[in-house]
Amino acid sequence: MKISALVLAVTAGAVVSAQADAAVLANWTFEVSQPASAGPFAAEAGINAATSQASGFHAGASTYSSPAGNNSARSFSSNTWAVGDYYQFKTSSTGYQNISFSWAQTGSNTGPLNFALFWSTNGTTFTQVGATIALLANAAPNGPWSAASTPNPSAYVTTISGPAALNNQANIWFRIVDMSTTSINGGTVAGGGTSRVDDVIISGDVVPAPGSLALIGLAGLAVGRRRR
Fewer beta carbons within 10 Å, N or C terminal of the chain? Predict the structure, then answer.
């Protein structure tokens, strides 16, 4: 049976298109979970929402809360920060590649200034990805976050692409880790200083089925032969 180059090309194009749109694996808005503890909290949306977990860790005692987010009613906030304390997010990337992590973050004037994103595939060994970031205060002129306002472009909002090691894993972890004792206002982090996160999204592209790449190659070959 002969298959036309046009059919192959269209099929291959559909495969590429389907894989070009990233799928949301887990999305924490904190509108449902409304944190009042370290968690864990299931994601509110995403393919793996029910089995994905968000949590916090502080070496000392900390108060967790869910104040206004970045154009939303809730976020994940805590105080009493020390170097090494973190927010953690766990999901599965089985069947997905090109994993990315995005979030919004801000803090009070006496909250920690510097954070960095770390990843892991075993929950024990973590590696930093991207540069250490400097937060802006959740106060004028950079804020504050509010459910009534549009998303605040002055708050730290970014997407960081993870390494290939995160592809197609049963479990993956991300941590947003406090990296210094310097506060947002340039002093020293105070016990009551807070940092809050919102709109946390882990996404990825579908891993091509073994026959998909062969189909794409076959389509290209057929089109090339037809042109000759």
Answer: N
Q: ∠ CA 142-144-148 to the nearest 5 degrees?
A: 125
Domain total of the chain: 1
- The DSSP line for 71-104 is TBS--EEE----TT-EEEEEE--TTEEEEEEEEE
User: Which of 21-25, 51-55, 140-144 is modeled with the greatest confidence?
Assistant: 51-55
Domain of residue 120, CATH code: 2.60.120.260
Q: Do 191 and 119 contact (CB within 8 A), yes or no?
A: no
Q: CA–CA separation, 194 vs 64, rounded Å? A: 9
In a domain, 16, yes or no: no
Identity of the amino acid at 68: A
Q: Which one, of 178, 71, 158, lies nearest residue 118 by Cα?
A: 178
Structure token pair of residue 185: 């206002």
- What would the pLDDT profile of 55-66 be if each residue is shown by its tens digit? 999 999 999 999
- C-alpha span between 19 and 82 (Å, rounded): 41
- Is there a contact between 62 and 84 (Cβ–Cβ < 8 Å)? no
- pLDDT, one tens digit per residue, over 67-109 is 999 989 999 999 999 999 999 999 999 999 999 999 999 999 9
Residue found by looking up tokens 């900390």 in the block? 62
